[in-house]
């Protein structure tokens, strides 16, 4: 890939602050004006194992982290062997060990982190020492770095300042021959707001007036819960951590029924437990947002890794037939936009709205515009605030299937809300004709949804004869690979349900169609086949818990 992109990777066992050190590195690079994309991997362990954090950065636009590593730090000896295939002849590999008889690519360099940590007086500052070395090699400003350290570590800033100085000075005395000659940005990038995909979803929820969130912690969706919990007092919202996902979904549905702009979140195993409530919201016509941040299954699967294996489950979530919307953001910006849209759609369509993400997108950081200052127009939906005495909550007198709703406390707005098929008042019915009318009324919402959901986007060369088709988080590595694939266009499916028939017309223009997904069975292909005459030329699939890298896709294509 482009030589203008640089990648730094740090590795160590869990418990040595790999993630906090990596996030600090990302903040430092953004503070210098670079654009970044980072990615962290960790096993389901509190201590030990092999954790990594990598940051790819450049002065131009970057969509995804790269596979090839320029500088690698092994904070504890022996953590570089798993990454040999990521090194090139020019890679710098630093570790607190003696490198002997190394036959793989790269320059292997001893960095006495334990000795330097002892000198500083803290054995947990190895990451910050590495930051000092890296800052010297890339010509970064010590003043800017130390400000970032202060912002991140607060009362522990001073010891980390000392650790940074120790690493910087050691590199200055020993590593001058390894200086990386790069051009620092001349001005600070206006996109200096750093957040991950989960936080982006949270900002979208807040800016669209979301005021009630419930979740049970489940990796990799927990970041949304933590983010919104921190905003409770500032934004005057309610955030609950109930006993399990069944309680989460039902409490959320109750809040939405009462008039809250509500959302819940989980990963696959928790989302499964919400299925019955999703069905209930479908028949009771309760608009609520469900954030599904996927990880590999089945069952517990790979709890801290990534996958796109929940596409079909999201679309068919809940038993029976009822309208729902499934949105699939492919970037941090789209996480923000689609989350806000989901909150509005829930109010407008009075039905479940699912935002489908995954660990790769949810827990990876990038620099974006300041979402806290982004304005979202709130859509309140069809609410009857002064109904007459003959108010019908589920009135059939609607062309778009959306009946005016009321909330508890509105005079004359009483109705029966339950999980049975019902008449216009909400009373249970088993009438064949009335059941048919109610089913048709609810499904009519999908016609309205078509005009409100995000359209597919065609990226790349508009005259290309080869077409890549994908969705969600794979968008990022595809766009990064597309920089060097001028013969390809890329169709990003941003709304997985309802899916527009116009997609079928696009397919007719291409001689070769390649579907790329992070799952084993190509669920997008299954979905498209169910709606159109769709026969892709080939599929590029990955299902080992790891995301695609742009170099990998470039080689495949």
Would you give an account of this structure?
There is one protein chain. This protein has 557 residues and is of the alpha/beta class. It has 4 domains: 6-178, Pyruvate-ferredoxin Oxidoreductase, domain 3, CATH 3.40.920.10; 194-373, Rossmann fold; 382-454, no CATH class; 455-556, Rossmann fold, CATH 3.40.50.920. The protein contains 20 helices and 20 strands. It has a 7-stranded mixed β-sheet with strand order 9-8-10-11-13-12-18, with helices on both faces. It has a 6-stranded mixed β-sheet with strand order 2-3-1-4-5-6, with helices on one face. Strands 15-17-16-19-20 form a 5-stranded mixed β-sheet, with helices on both faces. Helix 2 (113-120) packs across helix 5 and helix 6 packs across helix 7. The chain is globular and about 85 Å long. The two termini are 13 Å apart. The relative contact order is 0.10.
Can you summarize the main beta sheet?
A: 7 strands, mixed
How would you classify the helix and strand content by structural class? Answer: alpha/beta
In percent terms, what proportion of residues is strand?
Answer: 15-25%
Provide mean pLDDT, rounded.
95
Q: What is the CATH third-level topology name of the largest domain?
A: Rossmann fold
Which residues sit in consecutive blocks of at least 5 with pLDDT less than 50?
none
What do we call the CATH homologous superfamily of the largest domain? Thiamin diphosphate (ThDP)-binding fold, Pyr/PP domains
What is the radius of gyration computed over CA atoms, rounded to a whole number of angstroms?
26 Å
User: Whole-Å distance between the termini?
Assistant: 13 Å
Fraction of residues in H or I helices: 25-40%
């Amino acid at each position: 890939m482009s030589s203008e992109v640089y990648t730094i990777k740090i590795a160590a066992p869990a418990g040595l602050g790999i993630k906090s050190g990596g996030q600090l590195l990302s903040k430092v690079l953004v503070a210098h004006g670079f654009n970044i994309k980072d990615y962290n991997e960790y096993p389901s362990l509190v201590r030990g194992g092999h954790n990594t954090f990598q940051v790819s950065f450049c002065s131009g636009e970057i969509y995804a982290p790269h596979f090839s590593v320029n500088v690698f730090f092994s904070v504890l000896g022996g953590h570089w062997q798993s990454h040999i295939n990521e090194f090139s002849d020019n890679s710098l590999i630093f570790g607190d060990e003696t490198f002997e008889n190394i036959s793989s690519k790269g320059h292997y360099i001893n960095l006495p982190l334990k000795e330097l940590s002892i000198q500083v007086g803290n054995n947990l500052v190895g990451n910050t020492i590495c930051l000092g070395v890296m800052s010297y090699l890339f010509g970064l400003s010590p003043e800017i770095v130390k400000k970032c350290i202060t912002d991140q570590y607060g009362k522990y800033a001073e010891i980390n300042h000392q650790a940074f100085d120790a690493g910087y000075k050691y590199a200055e005395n020993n590593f001058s021959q390894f200086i990386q000659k790069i051009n620092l940005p001349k001005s600070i990038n206006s996109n200096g707001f750093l957040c991950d995909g989960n936080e982006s979803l949270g900002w979208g929820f807040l800016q669209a007036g979301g005021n009630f969130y419930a979740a049970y912690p489940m990796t990799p969706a927990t970041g949304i819960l933590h983010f919104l919990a921190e905003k409770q007092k500032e934004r005057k919202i309610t955030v609950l951590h109930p006993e399990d996902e069944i309680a989460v979904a039902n409490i959320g549905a109750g809040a939405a029924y009462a008039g809250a702009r509500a959302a819940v979140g989980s990963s696959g195993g928790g989302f499964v437990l919400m299925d019955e409530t999703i069905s209930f919201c479908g028949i009771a016509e309760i608009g609520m947002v469900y954030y599904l941040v996927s990880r590999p299954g089945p069952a517990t699967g790979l709890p801290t890794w990534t996958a796109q294996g929940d596409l079909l489950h999201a679309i068919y979530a809940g038993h029976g037939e009822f309208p729902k919307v499934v949105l699939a953001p492919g970037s941090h910006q789209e996480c923000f936009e689609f989350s806000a849209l989901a909150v509005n759609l829930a109010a407008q369509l009075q039905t479940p709205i699912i935002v489908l993400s995954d660990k790769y997108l949810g827990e990876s950081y990038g620099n974006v515009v300041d979402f806290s200052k982004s304005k979202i127009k709130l859509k309140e939906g069809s609410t009857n605030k002064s109904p007459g005495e003959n108010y019908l909550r589920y009135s059939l007198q609607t062309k778009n299937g959306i009946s005016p709703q009321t909330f508890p406390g509105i005079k004359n707005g009483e109705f029966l809300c339950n999980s049975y098929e019902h008449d216009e008042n909400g009373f249970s019915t088993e009438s064949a004709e009335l059941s048919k009318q109610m089913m048709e009324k609810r499904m009519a919402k999908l016609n309205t949804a078509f005009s409100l959901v995000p359209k597919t986007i065609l990226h790349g060369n508009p005259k290309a004869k080869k077409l890549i088709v994908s969705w969600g988080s794979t968008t990022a590595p595809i766009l990064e690979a597309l920089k060097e694939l001028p013969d390809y266009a890329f169709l990003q499916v941003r709304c997985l349900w309802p899916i527009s028939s116009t997609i079928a017309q696009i397919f007719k223009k291409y001689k070769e169609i390649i579907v790329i997904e992070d799952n084993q069975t190509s669920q997008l292909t299954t979905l498209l086949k169910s709606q159109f005459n769709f026969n892709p030329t080939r599929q590029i699939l990955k299902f080992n818990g790891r995301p695609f890298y742009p170099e990998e896709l470039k080689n495949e294509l």
